[in-house]
Amino acid sequence: MKRGKGMKFVGDSRIPAERKPNIPKDYSEYPGKTEAFYPDFLLKEWLVGAVFLVGFLCLTIVEEPPLERIADPTDTSYTPMPDWYFLFLYQLLKYSYASGKYVLLGTIVIPGLAFLALLLAPFLDRGPKRRPSQRPFATGFMLLTIALIFYLTWEAVEQHDWEAARKQGEIRTQVEVDKTAEGYKIYQEQGCISCHGENLEGRGSNPALVGTEKSVDEIKDIAKNGIGSMPPGIFKGTDEELQKLAEYIKSIEAE
Predict the structure, then answer these.
(1) What sequence ranges are listed for the domain Cytochrome b/b6 C-terminal region profile (predicted)?
(2) Whole domain around residue 151: which residue ranges?
């Protein structure tokens, strides 16, 4: 028997007989669908970026920045408000299961699990299909995340007292007061500093006393009988001290 006699060799048509280098196709085969990165594509990117930059600069000129007064570390009534893109986390910390003794759950565990799920999403759904309807896991997780963020942000906006926030953050007139005056000593002894500030500039939602439009008699009446959230009976001094305090407050004018 001769060598090779009676043997058949079968070839696979999917394997090319000749080895070819792994060179990508020339995209010039698709005219009208491609463009040079420089300068065509890069010029378009620059133009779009310039439009957005000019629009942003126009907004900064037209709309005044929402600046607040200088931070007062002694004002414990001030409630800070995060930027809009953190409002959903701000709202999450208001719930009982994510605050108080469970604050670590709301600040580390829940956001950490959400971040980990986003990180593992490409590995959990490795299907070749690209249509959202054909990728239920990735699509469902994305829609659930968007719904939760939208709901928590909406709740944070609805529940926040924007009027009180505006008052507590408004820029107030700062003046140098005569702290050696007898009226200021009475102001200090009666504990008015805790609510109206060291320089009568106001604190938290409590109004400033600088440049008040109220008369001396109206100031005396408020000090004894209170007004709004200020309860009556705050002032404990004599009528003479009350007169001096009211006259002192009235004498402080805004610069």
Answers:
(1) 27-154
(2) 84-160
